[in-house]
Specification:
Layout (H helix, E strand, L loop, with lengths): L10 E7 L6 H13 L5 E7 L6 H7 L3 E4 L5 H11 L4 E4 L4 E2 L4 H10 L3 E5 L2 E3 L4 H17 L6 E4 H6 L11 H16 L2 E4 L5 E3 L2 H6 L3 H15 L1 H13 L3
Parallel strand pairs: 1-2, 1-4, 2-3, 6-9, 7-10
Antiparallel strand pairs: 4-8, 5-10, 6-8
Length: 246
């Protein structure tokens, strides 16, 4: 991958991946397009979470930096990539996604204003249906109340390190946890969370394809019950839903 320099901040894009030989090339195509539009240096790191397919080979063939993380935990995979990152800004995107061509420019501009501690691009879904729309509506109040969003998430590397990165004891919702800790860190440093405009990422609906378009609404109700009454059931569900469905 070509290196660029100048006054633009360097960015490390970290892609946690497990058995993503099908989707990873699609994401990397969009990353290449975004890199062409950015005048600074962008390094792309694939954090392979013990894949058993060609994920690591594809990452190397495409010129990405590769790190292997054996602990099957998305938080550990994210931290593993961040540990070797050299960029001033670190960003994360899931492997089943595509990014907007202006993503890196938007991130650099927002960070350059000096008011942002942690941000996100927002996300669009590959397809829509009544069930998926209902799931989306369930999440909207949470986004409004907390200011949380997903897609490409980013911060200065020094801020990420200051809060200790992702919590590897959390099997899922690690993005919610770091959001809350970044928000608290931002209050101390007088900076805020932000949501970028006009550069939403796209993400796959494969969970809906596999479990059904209405499954998410039902899942929320089950999770609330398990949180209160059965931690063991929650852990079993997390393994099935987030880690071993492929």
């Amino acid at each position: 991958m070509q290196e660029k320099c100048g006054s633009y901040p360097s960015i490390s894009l970290i892609i946690p991946a497990y058995n993503e030989e099908e989707r990873l090339p699609i994401l990397l195509d969009t990353v290449d397009e975004a890199r062409k539009k950015y005048e600074g240096k962008v390094e792309v790191i694939v954090s392979d979470n013990s894949s058993i397919d060609r994920t690591s080979e594809i990452a190397e063939e495409r010129g990405c930096r590769l790190v292997t993380v054996e602990k099957r935990c998305i938080a550990a995979a994210r931290n593993g990539g961040a540990a070797i990152a050299e960029g001033e800004i670190i960003a994360f995107i899931d492997a089943d996604s595509k990014i907007h061509p202006e993503t890196f420019n938007a991130i650099a501009e927002k960070i350059g204003e000096g008011k942002t501690v942690y941000g996100a691009s927002g996300v669009r879904l590959d397809r829509m249906s009544p069930g998926i729309a209902a799931a989306h509506m369930v999440m909207i109040p949470l986004v409004w109340i907390t200011g949380m969003d997903t897609g490409v998430v980013f911060s200065m590397r020094e801020d990420f390190e200051a809060i200790g990165g992702y919590d590897e004891e959390i099997r899922f919702a690690e993005d919610v946890d770091i959001h809350l800790r970044m928000k608290k860190h931002g209050k101390k440093t007088k900076r805020k969370l932000c949501r970028l405009k006009g550069v939403k990422a796209w993400t796959s609906t494969r969970k809906f394809d596999r479990f059904g378009d209405w499954h998410y609404v039902l899942m929320i109700a089950k999770m609330l019950f398990w949180v209160i009454f059965s931690k063991k059931s929650m852990e079993k569900f997390a393994d099935r839903y987030w880690y071993y469905e492929r």
